[in-house]
């Protein structure tokens, strides 16, 4: 791993709105430069996308963008990020995705010209490779439309580039159900890391070529799948929390390859990326309950530079269209944080403490997001000589913290959760330092029909 | 209850496959389902009794604990494995007619869908309730269900689908079964499936978890 030191070592400095390496955008947003902005996400209502419905699809995105920016303007917003996370059809035929970026960008530009409201588009194509099993991570023909959309989309005004890439997911999906922590670590710290290197080298190069912003990736398909399964009580929350910690060594590879932030909203590993690399991050929590439930509604905003709602369908609510309603919710959340920032460090620290303390001991996954724990675990995550060792060390450090917290009586977990802790620790301790030793250990244990080693350069 | 059988019940309930298996930690080094079933047979206990007094109650407990959120999926999978280790000893007695099954349950994940973890859990729990399982695996089409039904007349069918895109295939399969093997009882399940959907496609019963399926089958068999 490239990073050997933390950029932020003081938990008090790991705070919302401020990042050591802020990102400036074309229309003048200064992300991580002293204030928090909303990042609005949205999607179509249930409808099919085909040649006949395309005009209707475009009309939806036009309506969403206009409605959201209008509301942001009325609320005196200081700036907005609009994430266009494509639906499959829009990456499969990139021309559709590009057309939507154009529609949105024209509206952003007109609000900027007419009213001075700055907004930017985060463009997030799908990782189409996940629809081939076993996955062809490097040789798939589906890489072509993905990169077409990246390139033409950024030229059309999608200035911030992201993806939720899926390298290693074919191994992780079953490992999550079995609570097989070694296989999860293999999927993230070996397969995930290797695929991130492959993918982000290309994305960062393209962005550099066109003067755009390679923002970052999210371990959504891994750690958020675990979070959802834990929410359904299929797997322990303790396990899901460990998956989050392990996912850091995978998502940080984007930064190693040149990504500069703001990292993706659904990457709850963001605070770690911020502490280790200094980039600004987007986060989501209570205001994303429209998309999925989570046990980290407040604490997730503790060090957010962008605050997001994850996704909402363009449907009508009593107040108006849902994206407009969520624009408003985000703006009020952000206004509160920005007021605290304006009043100085004491106020922002107090607000952060409230956000942290209201969640931290209610769930192992919240404990992972406490800024002081983030710093402590991050230190463990950069100590070793391989991604594998780093992931293992970070995970073991989290178990330490968890046990200290349980011993102090501040947190309790049901017996069915507790019984997993010693087993997980033992499993983690059996993981060797070197990647090649670990691969040798794991290959015989994994189903060879599930993934193709050469697609990961193995 | 016989000592060996009570140990076997415990081994299956807590997922102890055999003596060498490290799981669960508190039963380390003890006999697992594999050894205990052999011991029970050696002691002259009737196979039917092993099934009825140890395995079925053990899996019943597992199913209840899972639907009450008292255990997680991996523990259920371990119990299923332990049950499998025990059944390997009992299989010959089914063939020879020494054990009478409650009925036959034909289960598969529908065409286009490769998710089988949930389907396997259901199959294991239904097997644990004393039914003979015909598992058609994943990506199963209407023809394979019809073939299984012609080999096992009167069998109950279970369909699993995890993708919103493959739920549609579920409807087609139900239609073909009802057309070609009228009277066949069909259960459906999988994360996106609902009672409404079940009704809409003309299936007979939906359950969100294996326990519901087991209970429905119990009533059906009685
Ligand atoms: C593991 C997994 C996989 C594994 C499957 C491994 C395997 N051997 O099964 C792999 C990697 C192969 C996979 C592939 C894909 N998957 Co997948 N996968 C999952 C995951 C993470 C867990 C599913 C699971 O096992 N759940 C645990 C079991 C215990 O629950 P269950 O299946 O619901 O079963 C329970 C009940 O439903 C019920 N039940 C089930 N069947 C039946 C049948 C009867 C008769 C009855 C009574 C009851 C019953 O009892 C079970 C126990 O309680 C889910 C995410 C999630 N949140 O569910 C996604 C998910 C299902 N996958 C998804 C997708 C999109 C895919 C892929 C297309 C690509 C991808 N994202 O990976 C491919 C499709 C391949 C294909 N053609 O099928 C989506 C589906 C979205 C949608 N709306 O349709 C999900 C929801 C993830 C997501 N949020 O994107 N996947």
Task: Describe the structure concisely.
Chain A is α/β, with parallel strands linked by helices.
Q: Helix and strand succession of chain A?
A: EEEHEHHEHEHHEHHHHEEHHHHHHHH
What is the CA–CA distance across the termini of chain B? 25 Å
Question: Order of helices and strands of chain B, N to C?
Answer: HHHHEHEHEHEHEH
Global outline of chain A: globular
Q: Quick one: overall form of chain B? A: globular
Relevant terms:
heterodimer; A: 458 residues; alpha/beta; seven-stranded parallel sheet; two-stranded antiparallel sheet; 18 helices; B: 222 residues; Methyltransferase, Methionine Synthase (B12-binding Domains), Chain A, domain 1; Rossmann fold; 2 domains; five-stranded parallel sheet; 5 strands; binds cobalamin
Your description of this structure?
The complex is a heterodimer of chains A (458) and B (222). Chain A contains 18 helices and nine strands. With 458 residues, chain A is of the alpha/beta class. Chain A has one domain. Chain A has a seven-stranded parallel beta sheet. In chain A, strands 1-2 form a two-stranded antiparallel ribbon. Chain A is globular and about 60 Å long. With 222 residues, chain B is of the alpha/beta class. Chain B is 54% helix and 9% strand. Chain B is built from nine helices and five strands, in the order H-H-H-H-E-H-E-H-E-H-E-H-E-H. Chain B has a five-stranded parallel beta sheet, sandwiched between helices. In chain B, helix 5 links the parallel strand 1 and strand 2. In chain B, helix 1 crosses helix 4. In chain B, 46% of the residues are buried. Classes of the chains: A alpha/beta (458), B alpha/beta (222). At the A-B interface, helix 5 of A face helix 4 of B. Bound molecules: cobalamin. Cobalamin sits at the interface of chains B and A.
Topology (SSEs and partners):
The complex is a heterodimer of chains A (458) and B (222).
Chain A (H helix, E strand, L loop, with lengths): L17 E7 L5 E4 L3 E5 L12 H21 L5 E6 L2 H5 L1 H22 L3 E6 L18 H13 L4 E4 L5 H10 L2 H30 L2 E5 L2 H12 L5 H15 L1 H4 L13 H8 L4 E3 L21 E3 L13 H21 L2 H13 L6 H4 L3 H11 L5 H21 L7 H4 L1 H10 L5 H8 L16
Parallel strand pairs in A: 3-4, 3-9, 4-5, 5-6, 6-7, 8-9
Antiparallel strand pairs in A: 1-2
Helix pairs in contact in A: 1-3, 1-11, 3-4, 4-6, 5-6, 5-7, 6-8, 6-15, 6-18, 7-8, 8-15, 10-14, 11-12, 14-15, 15-17
Chain B lengths: L2 H12 L18 H10 L4 H21 L5 H23 L8 E6 L7 H12 L3 E4 L6 H10 L4 E5 L6 H14 L5 E4 L5 H6 L4 E2 L3 H12 L1
Parallel strand pairs in B: 1-2, 1-3, 3-4, 4-5
Helix pairs in contact in B: 1-2, 1-3, 1-4, 2-4, 3-4, 4-5, 5-9, 6-7
The structure holds cobalamin.
Cobalamin sits at the interface of chains B and A.
């Amino acid at each position: 791993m490239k990073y050997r030191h933390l950029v932020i070592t003081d938990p008090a400095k790991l705070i919302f709105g401020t990042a050591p390496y802020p990102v400036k955008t074309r229309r003048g947003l200064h992300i991580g430069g002293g204030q928090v902005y909303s990042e609005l996400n949205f999607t179509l209502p249930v409808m099919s996308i085909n040649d006949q419905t395309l005009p209707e699809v475009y009309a939806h995105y036009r309506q969403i963008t206009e409605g959201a920016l209008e509301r942001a303007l009325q609320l005196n917003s200081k700036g907005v990020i609009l994430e266009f996370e494509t639906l499959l059809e829009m990456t499969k035929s990139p021309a559709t995705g590009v057309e939507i970026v154009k529609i949105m960008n024209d509206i952003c530009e007109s609000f900027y010209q007419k009213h001075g409201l700055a907004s930017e588009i985060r463009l997030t194509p799908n990782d189409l490779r996940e629809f081939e099993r076993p996955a062809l991570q490097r040789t798939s023909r589906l890489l072509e439309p993905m990169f077409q959309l990246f390139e033409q989309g950024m030229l059309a005004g999608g200035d911030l580039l992201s993806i939720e890439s899926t390298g290693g997911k074919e191994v992780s999906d079953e490992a999550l159900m079995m609570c097989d922590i070694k296989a999860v670590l293999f999927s993230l710290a070996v397969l995930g890391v290797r695929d991130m290197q492959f993918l982000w080298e290309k994305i960062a190069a393209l962005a550099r070529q066109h003067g755009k912003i390679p923002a970052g990736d999210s371990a959504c398909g891994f750690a958020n799948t675990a979070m959802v399964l834990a929410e359904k009580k299929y797997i322990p929350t303790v396990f899901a929390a460990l998956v989050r910690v392990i996912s850091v060594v995978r998502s940080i590879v984007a930064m190693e390859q040149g990504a500069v932030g703001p990292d993706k909203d659904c990457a709850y590993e963001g605070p770690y990326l911020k502490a280790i690399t200094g980039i600004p991050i987007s986060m989501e929590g209570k205001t994303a309950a429209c998309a999925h439930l989570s046990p980290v509604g407040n604490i997730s905003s503790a060090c957010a530079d962008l605050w997001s709602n994850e996704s909402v369908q363009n449907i009508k609510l009593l107040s108006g269209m849902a994206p407009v309603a969520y624009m408003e919710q985000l703006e009020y959340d952000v206004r509160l944080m920005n007021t605290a920032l304006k009043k100085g460090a004491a106020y922002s620290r107090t607000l952060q403490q409230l956000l942290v303390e209201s969640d931290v001991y209610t769930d192992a996954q919240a404990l992972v997001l406490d800024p002081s724990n983030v710093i402590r675990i991050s230190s463990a995550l950069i100590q070793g000589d391989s991604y594998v060792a780093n992931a293992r060390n970070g995970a073991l450090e989290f178990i330490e913290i968890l046990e200290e917290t349980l011993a102090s009586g501040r947190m309790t977990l049901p017996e069915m959760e507790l019984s997993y802790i010693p087993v997980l620790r033992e499993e983690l301790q059996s993981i060797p330092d070197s990647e090649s030793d670990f691969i040798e250990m794991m290959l015989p244990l994994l189903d060879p029909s599930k993934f193709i080693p050469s697609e990961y350069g193995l | 209850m016989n000592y060996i059988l009570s140990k076997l019940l415990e081994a299956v309930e807590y997922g102890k496959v055999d003596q060498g298996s490290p799981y669960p930690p508190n039963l380390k080094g003890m006999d697992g389902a594999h050894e205990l079933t052999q011991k029970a047979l050696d002691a002259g206990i009737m196979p039917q009794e092993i099934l009825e007094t140890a395995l079925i109650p053990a899996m019943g407990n597992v199913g209840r604990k899972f639907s009450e959120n008292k255990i997680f999926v991996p523990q259920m999978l371990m119990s299923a494995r332990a049950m499998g280790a025990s059944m390997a000893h009992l299989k010959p007695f089914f063939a020879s007619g020494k054990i009478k099954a409650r009925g036959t349950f034909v289960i598969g994940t529908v065409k286009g869908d490769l998710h089988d973890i949930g389907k396997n859990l259901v199959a294991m729990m239904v097997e644990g309730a004393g039914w003979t399982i015909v598992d058609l695996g994943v990506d199963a089409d209407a023809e394979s269900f019809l073939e299984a039904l012609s080999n096992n007349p009167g069998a109950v069918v279970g369909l699993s689908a995890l993708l919103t895109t493959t739920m549609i295939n579920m409807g087609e399969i139900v239609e073909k079964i009802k057309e070609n093997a009228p009277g066949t009882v069909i259960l459906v399940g999988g994360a996106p499936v609902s009672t409404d959907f079940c009704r809409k496609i003309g299936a007979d019963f939906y359950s969100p978890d294996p326990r519901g399926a087991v209970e429905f089958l119990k009533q059906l068999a009685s």
